Amino acid sequence: MALAELKSAIPDYAKDLRLNLGTVIGNSLLPTQALWGTVLACAIASRSPLVLRELEPEARENLKPEAYRAAKTAAAIMAMNNVFYRTRHLLSDPEYGSLRAGLRMNVLGDPGVDRADFELWAFAVSAVNACGACLDSHEHKLREAGVSREVVQEATKIAAVLQAVAVTLDAEAVMASS
């Protein structure tokens, strides 16, 4: 199983990450589609070939084709949106906020899966990419859809742990090759 291999690759100094990885995926309160879509989208957003290589097959097994595609789409569209809206938010000139974005985001109209799942995946990717504007927007949509704070926090924990695992394992790979 890929999750077990990923956990075994985590060095002892990062034992807490190993434990947290098992918990956020193995003991998640999220339904299967929401969980594995979040895992896949965050694995992509982590930019770690190792993390993605180990988790993608299990995500593919646990997701219907349309959900698998939508999770990848969430990662792709948020890679663009997070840079754009984070920049707008960070600029001291508020006039940028009144300019038309002019970026195609048609998938947001019909992501091909339950809207709340897609919003959860977009939220989690925004956590990895540290875009406060997108986090606020997607959290607001999730809460409007009746998604609990506990579910939102669960996605945040998955994003945090996968990002930390990616940083740790990628750093280990670089140091091992030096």
Automatic annotation (TrEMBL):
NCBIfam families: ahpD, ahpD_dom. Its EC number is 1.11.1.28. It comes from Streptomyces fragilis. Homotrimer. The active site is at 131 (proton donor), 134 (cysteine sulfenic acid (-soh) intermediate). HAMAP family: AhpD. Antioxidant protein with alkyl hydroperoxidase activity. Required for the reduction of the AhpC active site cysteine residues and for the regeneration of the AhpC enzyme activity. Gene3D superfamilies: AhpD-like. It catalyses: N(6)-[(R)-dihydrolipoyl]-L-lysyl-[lipoyl-carrier protein] + a hydroperoxide = N(6)-[(R)-lipoyl]-L-lysyl-[lipoyl-carrier protein] + an alcohol + H2O. Belongs to the AhpD family. Residues 94-175 form the Carboxymuconolactone decarboxylase-like domain. InterPro entries: AhpD, AhpD-like, AhpD_core, CMD-like. Disulfide bonds join 131-134. This is Alkyl hydroperoxide reductase AhpD. Keywords: Antioxidant, Disulfide bond, Oxidoreductase, Peroxidase, Redox-active center. Pfam families: CMD (PF02627).
